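BUG: 3D viewer hangs when loading the predicted structure for this chain

Environment: internal workstation, default settings.
Expected: structure renders.
Actual: progress bar stalls at 90%.

Input used:
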Amino acid sequence: MKKIMLAMAACLTIGLAMGQTRFDACLMGGFNMSQIDGDGAGKYNHPGFRVGVGSSFTLSGDTDSPWRMVVELAYTQKGSYINATDRNLSVNYVEVPVMISYNMIDNRLRFAAGVAPAIQVGASVTTNGVDEPQSAANFTRMDWLPLTATARYRFATHTCIELRYQNSMLSITKENGSGTYRIFRSNTGAFSRLLTIGLAYQF
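Structure tokens produced before the viewer hung:
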């Protein structure tokens, strides 16, 4: 966790140092509700949080262009809860979202979409309060292709409210049953989905 915090601080420092040109920087924090498709449940009933830093920059020399590239570094908690069996699956990631954004309404409203590749930094599975380390070890080390989309509204000089959606396109487990699938029927397994509501402080 200390290394993660140092990396976030370094990214924020770089963003601030470049902030006088065509870059900006922000701090983010939010509340997650997630689920895992293919685990036998289908509700966004697994709580968690997301914290991170980010920066955006114009895609051309025009600093007034509404199009920007967004790069973030964040720690996020995902998983699912199956009420019928009191089964709790928790998976924590460090993710690096890369998105293209479009600004509107004097840069107050921003829509962005892209991918958020992530590395797993911890997983646990419990049923009726009993740990299942073998089940936890079944989660893959990398979640290579979560698609992500955000909507951010700046309601004060520096403060924004943000909604975020993520959906993994590749299975997050090593061994899969029939599960569900993404894009192709042969791409079966378990797939994470996430909704986040949070605040961002933009420099």
